[in-house]
Amino acid sequence: MREPDDATRRQFLRRSGGVAVIGAVSLMSTPRAAQATPATLAAAIRAVTGAAELRTGKVKLEIPPLVENGNTVPLTVSVDSPMTPEDHVKSIHVFNEKNPQPNIGNFYLGASAGRAQVATRIRLADSQKIIAIAHLADGSFWSATADVVVTLAACTEELI
Amino acid sequence: MAQALINVPKRAGRGDIIEIKTLISHVMETGYRRTAEGTVVPRNIITSFACRYNGTEVFRADLFPAIAANPFISFFAVATASGTFEFEWIGDNGFTQTAQAAITVE
Predict the structure, then answer these.
(1) What is the phi/psi pair of residue A102, to 5°?
(2) A157 inside domain
(3) What is the structure's pLDDT at B2?
(4) By the 8 A CB rule, do B24 and B71 touch?
(5) What is the rounded average pLDDT for all residues in chain B?
(6) CB within 8 Å of A98: residues ≥ 6 apart
(7) Owning domain of residue A2
(8) Which fold is adopted by the domain B4-105?
(9) Mean pLDDT of each 10-residue bin along chain A, 160 residues long
(10) Is A43's Cβ below 8 Å from some Cβ in B?
(11) What's the pLDDT at A22?
(12) What is residue A155's DSSP assignment?
């Protein structure tokens, strides 16, 4: 009489234990937040530059190398350009590597801007690389990168 | 109504390059944060900003959730004539805000 009962109990425990372990593993492996992958970053940059070649230089990206609070990080992008109707910066695009979205901002200037420089404050979810791309009137694209170490990450960590 | 702060020089010489600074109060909720119950806080950000100088657009920006709360943007313009700078922010949930600043060019 007792044999079958014991067997089912053992089976039940084994099975439920297995389910619990699987549940725990799947919970742990679920990413806490989405992250821009190198592929999505490349796609976002490609959407701006198209087939044009992306060259390094001309752009100056100013951002603190070590950031305590990722919720507000000052960022300044300036481009070495005379800003004449023939030779000026049409737009400046800023990208990141590890935030949930690869884009940070697109800034469109005109020849009447006088100086190709924009400044803003951004959020960084992790220590990562920032990329600034300038689109010049002659159709060329120039870029600069900067590495930032973030101690307190923005947006994904806190629960409200 | 959100509050916007604009910094444009009151007077400038003709042809001077002037710096324009703008700041607006806005949460810039990313849409990636969760409450303690696990529900996603819906996105609520400013998506675009534009500046017009005497009716002509001189600067425009597309903003993403990676822009910090209370967006600060600074840029440059050449003072060509006396007149006004008009600023416009557009965002999620029908958010719009405008501001103006006058400049005297001599």
Answers:
(1) -75, -25
(2) no
(3) 73
(4) yes
(5) 93
(6) A35, A36, A124, A125, A126, A127, A128
(7) 1-30
(8) Immunoglobulin-like (2.60.40)
(9) 59 58 42 66 92 91 93 95 92 93 93 92 93 94 94 65
(10) no
(11) 46
(12) S
